[in-house]
Amino acid sequence: MFDEIKDKFNPLAFEQKIYRYWLENKYFSAKIDKSKVPFSIVIPPPNVTGYLHIGHALNNTLQDVIVRYKRMKGFNTTWVPGIDHAGIATQNVVERALKERNTDRFQLGRKKFVEEVWRWKEKYGSRIIDQLKSLGCSCDWDRERFTFDRQYSKAVTREFVILYKKGLIYRGNYMVNWCPRCRTAISDIEVEHVVKKGNLWDIKYPLIDLETGKPGDSEYIVVSTTRPETMLGDTAVAVNPGDRRYKKYKGRTVYLPLTGREIPLIEDDFADMEFGSGAVKVTPAHDPNDFEIGKRHKLEKINIFNEDATLNSNAGKYEGLDRNAARQKILQDLEEQGYLLGKKSHDSQVGTCCRCNTVVEPRISMQWFMSMKELAGPAIRVVKEGKVKIIPKKWEKLYFNWMENIRDWCISRQLWWGHQIPVWYCRDCNEMIVSEGKPESCSKCSGSSMEQDQDVLDTWFSSCLWPFAAFGWPEETEDLKYFFPTDALITAHDIIFFWVARMIMMSLYFRKDIPFGEVFINPLVNDVFGQKMSKSKGNAVDPVDLINQKGADVLRFTLTSLTTPGRNLNMGDEKIEGVRNFANKLWNASKFVIANLNDEDIADIDIGQLNPDLWDRWILSRLNRVVRGIEKYLGKYNFSFASRILNTFLWNDYCDWYIESAKVKIYSPKNSGEKKNALFILWYVLEKYLKLLHPFMPFITEQIWQNIPHSGESIMVESFPEPEPARIDQHIEDEIKILFDVIGEIRKIRSELKINPSSKIKISLMASEDKSKAVLEENSEYICSLAKTGELEFKDFTGKKGYIKAAAANVDIFINIADAIDVESEKKRVGDRIKKVNLDIEKSKKKLSNADFLRQAPQEIIQKQKDNLDRAEKLLEVLKDQLNRIKDINE
Asked: Are 416 and 91 contacting, i.e. CB atoms less than 8 angstroms apart?
């Protein structure tokens, strides 16, 4: 099952094997145990139509980190997975498939179409679930839910019936947002407003002559409109009561061109005296503001559109035309008849359907609505009181703004895939009955001919029950009693309105409790230049491809290392490759430990009885700082800082310093106990570190852990390391930093002067403090090994020929390089390179001072040029320092 750690790091060889091992052993499944503290979260259920995109990968990785961490901390953890039936989205997908077969849902009929959708769901519905598994998500798959399964449908029906009986759901003819492509009403927050370039047309509306009763030639009112086709549904022209220009026309009527109808001139405060002519056409059936004007003035409402946005019989000779074709024909006729006075360019905000980008038509329609004001109040309070914390806090403002200005919610949809509204109508007497099941007979006339409402409920109406319906509500299940309320929710900012707010409202209403204690709003994933990822731009990252190429752990740690609360993350190939190198570093370090370690090396050693040296005490101090840091930063959802300290500890502390120091004790020990202690600490720290890293990179940590001495079945059900404050020793860290600074300075000089790694150069050190001198002398063997020096002395070599002088940590460092380099040749090499770098700097500065380049070049090219200049300037400083050191030899 778990292959030995011998070959090169290849995550594809073991990741899926390990995931199957976890599944087979039911490590993700939680059993109710009242002796343990539960920790539960529910997944934001992806659409059944979904593919794993980079946003899903980020969101679910963050959830999995928290879940794995809490599981290892001893909580009885469940992460409830599931998928959403996604009414409009799923119906659209299946309708496109039907179109390829030269048919549609209307030819099939409702029953056969729904059967077709279920077949599609059975075939493709598990696709995103399988992709989440490849990401390593430790969801409680035994509790997987679907928002259209039998039990969940029961919950949705119960929700509707209770809210209706409490007077919070009502039906009526109101203005809604209508999507002509989806053929359904959509809510306000499902409308995306985009600025589009268009025109503002001026149209002449003649006043009716008081004597002849016919349209006059000299008296008219000019109205300006961006949608001339809707004039066919006009039932008034409105002017502001304070507009003196129109006082003389008070009480008059105007002729509506192209229709033969007369409509009243009315006064209403909505008319803006500063816009256009100050007069506005009023179309109550096709504009939400006009709808309100219509109610105030009791105007007729004339609907001119069919469901597909073609014009209906109320449009006269324009019947059957598409709205765009009708616009052109109406403008042509207006111009020919002398009613079109002109046009000008005008940018306006146009509402579009968030699912298909079709321009939405405001339309009066018989729909079901939910009253929201009463529900919103308690949901506002629990956030203000801190019972539900939104992290980062800046998102609270958005939440409050929407909740405090909330409008009633249109919950009905004219779809066939979804929870059909539990309302029946008697065909005999038209009585309406709201019931969880089909009534056997009419309560009014006792007739048995009952027909269910054809509409379905908005998908968000069902998903707002998710935190408690996922545990079995409306039944009082043991899961519901034990795991609800959930502890946290991790989601994206774009569904704070759609989902988060509504879950809080419904939970408070039906469970008298909050649905979760914390809401972490995860950031967006942008490309390396901070631009939004999209397929059209060619900058999107496909997480499935990345998993198949680099492994799930690399994707996960890349995402967590970039996730800081409140800041979008910028992701590029360089960062992904950096994490790949980090994983490879861990793999190779583990190979070194395993190659040198036998079980008997650690069998009889107790960490409490160990007599650690300076290096051992230092690495244990650093390890415990990491433990404390992980707890701190995960508690704040600061995944970036947590990832950073894990990365730094492995790369710098464990690999670059401790392993290298341990080699001194392993390969040339002063006594057998020294080697044994070193191997024990190498194993001890690695084992603890693997547990710390496991929530972030579950596969590689399991694979390595299984190959080192351990007890237990799986790292994922082991205990998370607890901090040991007594082992955190600042004094030890300060002492060893003296060694690091001295060794680092020697390494730096060797690198800058291109001194051959095999050259054992002579070094002399002079410390200004006794403490530093003692540390250096006690660790001289480590200095020689780690800095690759030869003879080491502790004398003042100031002015001695062949030596250069450097300083670090209040220590003077004298390095004999006269025999290690050709001084004259090296002076020439460095001097020539300085000249080349200066030329590069000059070229970059010239380009960046070119106004045409800055105006025309893509932002990423400009940024690349700036980065090149920055690197060149830093390199120049290094080269100048090198040249000065070489010159010092001859002085």
From this structure: yes
pLDDT for 533: 72
**45 cis-preceded (ω within 30 degrees of 0):** no
What 8-state DSSP symbol labels residue 264?
E
- Give the torsion through C-alpha atoms of 400, 404, 408, 410, to 10 deg: -20
- Rounded Cα gap, residues 597 and 603, in angstroms: 11
**Rounded to the nearest 10 degrees, what angle do helices 54-72 and 552-561 cross at?**
90
Report yes or no: 246 and 265 within 8 Å, Cβ to Cβ: yes
Q: Enter the tokens of residue 18.
A: 């390990």
The C-alpha angle with vertex 328 and arms to 327 and 329, in degrees rounded to 5, equals: 95
- List strand residue ranges (DSSP E) for 81-141, in order: 82-83
Dump pLDDT digits (tens) for 312-358.
999 889 999 999 999 999 999 999 999 999 888 887 888 888 778 88
Task: Identify whether the C-beta of residue 305 lies closer than 8 Å to the C-beta of residue 230.
Answer: no
- The angle formed by the CA atoms of residues 743, 745 and 751, to the nearest 5 degrees, is 100
Angle between helix axes 672-693 and 614-635 (nearest 10 degrees) is 10
d(CA 129, CA 145): 11
**Averaged over 56-77, what is the pLDDT?**
97
Q: What angle do CA 603, 604, 609 make, to 5 degrees?
A: 130
- Burial letters for 739-762: b for 16+ Cβ neighbours within 10 Å, e otherwise? bbbbbbbbeebbebbebeeeeebb
User: Could you give the CA distance from residue 792 to residue 789 in angstroms, rounded to a whole number?
Assistant: 7
Quote the pLDDT of residue 601: 66
DSSP 514: -
What distance in Å separates the CA atoms of residue 844 and residue 797, rounded to the nearest whole number?
Answer: 43
Which neighbouring-strand residues pair with 825? none
Q: Which residues pair with 600 in a beta bridge?
A: none
Give first-to-last CA distance, the chain, whole Å: 66
**Other C-beta atoms lying within 10 Å of the C-beta of residue 385:** 8
* pTM of the shown model: 0.84
CA pair distance 165, 367, nearest whole angstrom? 17
231-256: per-residue pLDDT in tens? 999 999 999 999 989 999 898 999 99
pLDDT by residue (tens digit) across 570-616?
A: 888 889 999 999 999 999 999 999 999 876 667 667 777 777 889 99
Kindly tell me if the per-residue pLDDT of 546 is higher than 90. yes
Residue 536's pLDDT band, with cuts at 50, 70 and 90, is: low
- How is 385-444 classified by DSSP, letter by letter? TTSSEEESTHHHHHHHHHHHT---EE-EE--SSS-B-SEEEETTT--EEE-SS--SS-TT
What's the rounded Cα separation, in Å, for the pair 736 and 613?
A: 11
Q: In the structure encoding, which two tokens stand for residue 573, read together?
A: 């190939």
Give residue 661's pLDDT. Answer: 93
Which two structure tokens, joined as six digits, stand for 185?
């009403």
- Supply φ then ψ for residue 640, to 5 degrees: -65, -50
Query: What's the half-sphere exposure (Cβ side, CA atoms, 13 Å) at 654?
Result: 31
Using CA atoms, how far apart are residues 420 and 414, in angstroms rounded to an integer? 10
Q: Note whether 434 and 427 are within 8 A (CB).
A: no
Q: Which residue has the tokens 């190779």?
A: 588
Q: What is the mean pLDDT of residues 28-54?
A: 93
Backbone angles phi, psi at 350, to 5 degrees: -115, 130
User: Under a CB-based contact definition with an 8 Å cutoff, are residues 42 and 139 in contact?
Assistant: no
Q: In whole angstroms, what is the distance from residue 321 CA to residue 325 CA?
A: 6
Cα separation, 547 vs 555, in Å, equals 7
Residue 366 has pLDDT above 70, yes or no: yes
Give the pLDDT band of residue 823 (cuts 50, 70, 90).
low
Q: Can you give the length of the chain in residues?
A: 891
Task: Count other C-beta atoms under 10 Å from residue 366's C-beta.
Answer: 12
Asked whether the predicted pLDDT for residue 275 surpasses 70, the reply is yes
Per-residue pLDDT reduced to its tens digit, 392-422:
999 999 999 999 999 999 999 989 999 999 9
Tokens of 402: 């929407």
